[in-house]
Amino acid sequence: MFGQNENEILPLATAVAGRDLDRDDLEEVFARAAWSGIAEPGDGTAGAVVARLGAATALRAVLGPWPVSEFSARLREAGADDVSDDQVHAALERWAPRAGAPDAVGALRQAARVGARLLLPTDALWPVGIDDLGSHAPLALWVRGTDDALIALPRAMALVGARAATGYGEHITMEASAGLVDRGYAIVSGAAYGIDGMAHRAALASNGHTVAFLAGGVDRFYPSGHDALLTRIAETGAVISELPCGQAPTKWRFLQRNRLIAAASIATVVLEAGWRSGSLNTAAHATTLGRPLGAVPGPVTSAASAGCHRLIRDYTAVCVTNPDEMAALAPLAPAPSALDRAESEDTGPDGRGAELTRLLDALSVRSPRVVSDVAARAGMSLAAVRALLGSLELDGAVAERERGWVKTPAGR
Amino acid sequence: MFGQNENEILPLATAVAGRDLDRDDLEEVFARAAWSGIAEPGDGTAGAVVARLGAATALRAVLGPWPVSEFSARLREAGADDVSDDQVHAALERWAPRAGAPDAVGALRQAARVGARLLLPTDALWPVGIDDLGSHAPLALWVRGTDDALIALPRAMALVGARAATGYGEHITMEASAGLVDRGYAIVSGAAYGIDGMAHRAALASNGHTVAFLAGGVDRFYPSGHDALLTRIAETGAVISELPCGQAPTKWRFLQRNRLIAAASIATVVLEAGWRSGSLNTAAHATTLGRPLGAVPGPVTSAASAGCHRLIRDYTAVCVTNPDEMAALAPLAPAPSALDRAESEDTGPDGRGAELTRLLDALSVRSPRVVSDVAARAGMSLAAVRALLGSLELDGAVAERERGWVKTPAGR
């Protein structure tokens, strides 16, 4: 499976996964990384095959390549009666040209170089909303950014709109983004010029969490004019793509990227959009996923608002005119305390409650401890420790000091 | 019933009714004229009492005054089990002070002086939509204007909005009114400053039919700054009130006037309205009556559009951005030919079909005849002849020449 680069792969995969990997983990990480470059975003056959056979076995099948008949037989054995022989045949033909191990190794090398990491659906930080995409969900996500931003995604509102924004559109986007951050929301968008860029900028200016989903690899920011903005987002928020490093954005990938924006957020608001704006595609994804959809009206004399009016008139978007009305689309429950959650959740040895207990056991009230020390004491991955520390910090149960983390009296 | 002015009343009533009156007609016209000054607009008890006893008997009861017990007994006899003794008692107390004959005579005198006429619910030109108000319908309507405008009411769209309109609001109102006239609609509004005034002006400029409903008598136009505008509307369109001449507009009467705007139109569109604009009251009446309601969005930064957004967001108003979308609220059927209607309607001696036949019999293809001549030949009222001629002219069945009306080959 690993080709000629086997020795290089373990350290690379460990780096991008952010945790120690046993042989199975390594195969899973490598296979998911490879699949993210083999299947185009939204390839439902890839989603079904990987779900049935596992990423590693499915990759071996493509690399083999297994004969169609054997592939189909194995799929049926695994209970996949929704994938026909014809689909397998067609899929193998489109996957084969991209299935060489070198591509995956190159993507891992580049990811390690730019500090990107690979999230798998089993990771604690995997955005839960994404799973609503079913077999069209990405097989992995490449991320440059902070754990805090990923943890904030279940409280994220997508603010999207046209690249050709007017002064009016930029103004209301700034108000919306800052107002939603003030109300506890994170802001998701697509980092495009116009409305998207303003949504990210205003969130950053309000010290909010903001997450950009890209249509190409996270190693080369697109659009290039937003390189500085995306660098800032990666520092305090997160920049995410389902495509591996080195991949260029295409028309198809933009449309598929839009489904991630809609799925990762609890609601989508379109702030300004022409009659055929791409943001209407994001709106359609939100509606398909059953996510609340809002649109901001504007002057009927402005072509840049025609798409918003169309959404309100014909596609049941709610007319929203200020951050309060946007927040009402998907009200936030008072942030549940991580401690409360621990009590109400599985407290078995693998449950989140157990991890919380072990994490708090691993912390001291007096002696600050660095994350790697805490992870070793708790027997948990660095990523899981970081995620839970972020969550507990919001609850005031832990605090970060100059030389590491401590638990507060509330965390005892 | 007529008090000391009996001799003056017949010629006055004949003039405002626009037709010859026998004794019963005269009593009905006089009683309705009196009632329009006795009961405040929307007085449901007055509506119920007049519907049960007839306007003349009900007026005698008030003038009597009959004892409450007798009044109630007569109402029950007439099948009115929806009016309690308490309601009759309270109603007699509020009606009595206004029930003197001199008030009604004064209103008739003033109406005759300004050329206003009195429409009764039985008149051919009575706006049919008004009847949907049930017992809250006006008992009579005072009109200054043309038959054509009254005939056009079943094709009328109400365009309403704030007095404090912005340049944006006035612009979109002008486009809406002119665009709807181009599509065959008449325009109803309330003649107020701002949106209402612009709706009327643009309709006049497009040679459309426009009708203004006032909250006071049609003898003194309100607001006074719109005296010239209302004079123009009365010349080519119609100015209508349920209050007799001499009555001043009041807050209550404005609110009740709004129900007439909503009821007389096939749909209502709010073009610009603040959060508490009176036009939201018209919108509420439209919704209560089951009439389609539209609202035009605007910049969310404009307080003058906040009421429109509220209607779209909370009151199921349709978001409409141009005349096509407004027209879609209540599409016009292709104008039915009066001749087609005649064929499908009652052709007995009292039916509309019979009147059409008599009217066409009374016209010549070659010799133009004036309306009074046609009325005499057909044995019909002047008003009925005018109404039918207007309708037939739209169908191309009759035409007006310099010296009167002729029928065309289509009308033979």
Question: Summary?
Answer:
The structure is a homodimer of 412-residue chains. Chain A is of the alpha/beta class.
Which features does this protein show?
19 helices, alpha/beta, homodimer, Rossmann fold, Arc Repressor Mutant, subunit A, globular, 412 residues, two-stranded antiparallel ribbon
Characterization of this structure:
The structure is a homodimer of 412-residue chains. Chain A is of the alpha/beta class and 412 residues long. The first copy, chain A, folds into three domains: 3-113, no CATH class; 146-327, Rossmann fold (3-Layer(aba) Sandwich); 338-411, Winged helix-like DNA-binding domain superfamily/Winged helix DNA-binding domain (Arc Repressor Mutant, subunit A). Helices cover 49% and strands 10% of the residues of chain A. Chain A has a nine-stranded mixed sheet with strand order 1-2-6-5-4-3-7-8-9, sandwiched between helices. In chain A, strands 10-11 form a two-stranded antiparallel sheet. The radius of gyration of chain A is 22 Å and the shape is globular. The A-B interface holds A 168, 171-172, 296-301, 305-306, 309, 312-313, 318-322, 325 and B 168, 171-172, 296-301, 305-306, 309, 312-313, 318-322, 325.
